[in-house]
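Deliverable D4.2, example record:
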Amino acid sequence: MIKSYLSKIFAAIVRKRIDRWAKNPIATQQKVFEQLIAQAKNTAFGRDHHFDEIKNYDDFAARVPIRDYEALRPYIERVVEGEPNVLWKGKPLYFAKTSGTTSGAKYIPITKASMPFHIQAARDAILCYIHETKKAAFVEGKMIFLQGSPILGEKNGIKTGRLSGIVAHYVPAYLQRNRMPSYKTNCIEDWETKVEAIVTETFSENMTLISGIPSWVLMYFERLYTRSGLKVGQLFPNFNLFIYGGVNYEPYRQKFEHLIGRKVDSIELYPASEGFFAYQDSQTEKGMLLQLNSGIFYEFIEADSFFTEQPKRIPLKEVQLGVNYALIISTNAGLWGYNIGDTVQFTSLAPYRIVVTGRIKHFISAFGEHVIAKEVEEAMQVALEATGARITEFTVAPQVNPTQGELPYHEWFVEFETMPKHMKTFARLIDEALQKQNMYYYDLIQGKVLQPLKITKVPTGGFAAYMKAQGKLGGQNKIQRLANDRSLVKQLKL
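Output generated by the structure prediction step:
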């Protein structure tokens, strides 16, 4: 039990360190800002945007436009080709390779300056949990991190791979002995084969911590249950901590607790190839602590005005509670005024805590309602809690041209684990919860522009089959929660 004892002492030290910058947020961000500008002054990007003339935030905002990956691509391509000192001094250590753009793969640089924070943030999240709860017994058992393959490729002398695969090379020595699966198993590319191998490896182990994207962890739990006939909590009696990121856990919570057979504590993380932005630092407070001391300078644009001609961008000190913001970052990996595509809301300003609300491009506004991911997930949660139904996955799309002269509606495509007793009641509960959250949707329903939503059942395994067909089964990939068209749902086999 020595590990557990020492981890509590370490946790107290780290928590104090976090509190120091969390209690001085604006000064912390200003320091990060000044360091970023100073260190990138002599890069190609710094010269092109006159970093030597930047004295304050207004100067920066005037010289550096908001860009997404496609707009920054000309600079990134120079980095990929091996040119040094383009976006950041020297060359990157890695490229985190991701899919998802119209013109092929994205290569996100990870530098010597940015890499440590990807590791530190995940560690600190666990230490905050230990400090707050005084629960540390899990460090004595086995831990599993469901992630992408650690096998790295190479691009002009720079190693490339998935972020989770890159991070796997930096797991501290004191965790390596406890960590699962084995390196060999982690290298399996095919997700279904990999999950089966992980089940075999972990079946008889003392698993205490399990981490991964909820939808893929569910697949692992289902395979464990199929093989053993036991709930995961019986198979792993000391499993008490689930760590996740990438998607909202709440729609999956009931299915998780059913498969585990009991409640377990959870920690939410907000990692991305572009940086580790936030983590849950408290089991009692809503939201995740924004990482202000990690080589990332944050800006925000109100989501409702994002697509206007000159949307107003603001620094941290001007944000307000409950407003939906597009998240803009400038980092020590050389991303400048970069729109990562996510939207967030602040749940606290002292300290600054956020929840992820969706994607700036992922919403339904076929009729002016501007429904976002957070709203559909919370509405689903209301219906699940009220009816005891459980779901595997869902997505939402508008039906603009229904047959037989019907009013248009939102169509919810749901893969159920346990069906509700009354589907009509289930749909009504979702619809009412959505109307409560979104006044535009409420007005459209009340004004008979839209009819209440309809639910379409997706067969068991339907979403997994769709992801497999897209080459996105497992790893960091996740189902798009909603869209303003029907391109995704057309590909579902119903």
